Amino acid sequence: MKTEKISCALTTWNSNAYLEKQLDSLNSQSVPFDEVIIVDDASTNDTVQRLHAYIEKHHLKNWRVIVHPANQGFISTFQDALAATSGDLIFLCDHDDLWYPDKVEIMSKQFDVRPGLQVLACSFDLIDGADRKIEDKVSSHHGNHNLIRKPVIPGGFTPITFEDLMGYNFAPGCTLALTREIKDQYLNRAVDLNLPHDWAISAIAAIQNGLGYLDQPLIGYRQHGTNTLGLARRTSYVTRTQTALLEAEQKKSLSTLAKRFHASSWQQVRMNKVANMYARRARSLKKRNPMILLPLFFAPVPKGFRLTLGMDLKTMMEKK
């Protein structure tokens, strides 16, 4: 793929003090965007005014702000941002991170030299509110802050398969770039599924052998109390049960996606088995019945799932 036009799909909602830093990091890319589409999800503070002020100050005629009349949630907001883009290559962006100056240049080159690449994720640095890096323990058998449950090529490109996504998402959406073709497939055929937009987009590309990971940190991924999605651990029984129910629904949606996008028969069978495992796990937590959970310890399960089951069992056995 020879990239002709590069778009950024940025969403905002009640943005905090980090907004202008993020906008600066987008505006100072070594390869500039041809367009930046910003969709605000009905902010109740001064986010929209700050966006317009920034655009006017820097004379950014190719930046456009769309404002939702009512709050719709982050998935719907990203869908609207994607739909409004016209680029051949689209970068997803959150409002409170910090992009490094060569992110667009490095990632777009990967699409130029890899004709079959449809979606690419880069790595990231965890940063705090003062832009300082946060140390993170990473297993030698995992990649991308333990989000990828297999070894990756240090500093290089690693293909990601649909099997890698059956249990867990492998990268935050703010690290993704995708082709127009995948954008269209997602918007036309997958928005009804109960899946985060980034996971669904990655899964569609993986089924078509077009998903990759670049082991280079190209953004600072900010961690703070107001993240919509972060890397927090879920330890309380109530929170863990709610999460298990949501994950069971997501695996069911992944199973539907596999059929809809014509994954191989064995991928569909395996995804269905994974969905059934997560449904059983959710049922065990909901009923607080360890006996429902125990058979899963002896079944073939996705990488990392036994550790999850162990935490579930520990949580269930704690006093109410």
Describe the overall structure.
This protein is of the alpha/beta class and 320 residues long. It has ten helices and nine strands. The radius of gyration is 20 Å and the shape is globular.
Mean pLDDT: 93
What is the helix tally? 10
Q: How many beta-strand elements? A: 9
Order of helices and strands: EHEHEHEEHEEEHHEHHHH
Rg calculated over all Cα atoms: 20 Å
What is the compact description of this entry?
The protein is α/β, with parallel strands linked by helices. Helices cover 40% and strands 17% of the residues.
Distinctive features:
single chain; 320 residues; alpha/beta; nine-stranded mixed beta sheet
Task: Explain the layout of strands and helices.
Elements: E1 6-12, H1 19-27, E2 35-40, H2 47-58, E3 63-67, H3 74-84, E4 89-93, E5 98-99, H4 103-113, E6 119-127, E7 157-159, E8 176-179, H5 180-189, H6 197-207, E9 211-222, H7 237-260, H8 265-287, H9 290-293, H10 305-317
Parallel strand pairs: 1-2, 1-4, 2-3, 6-9
Antiparallel strand pairs: 4-8, 5-9, 6-8, 7-9
Helix pairs in contact: 5-6, 7-8
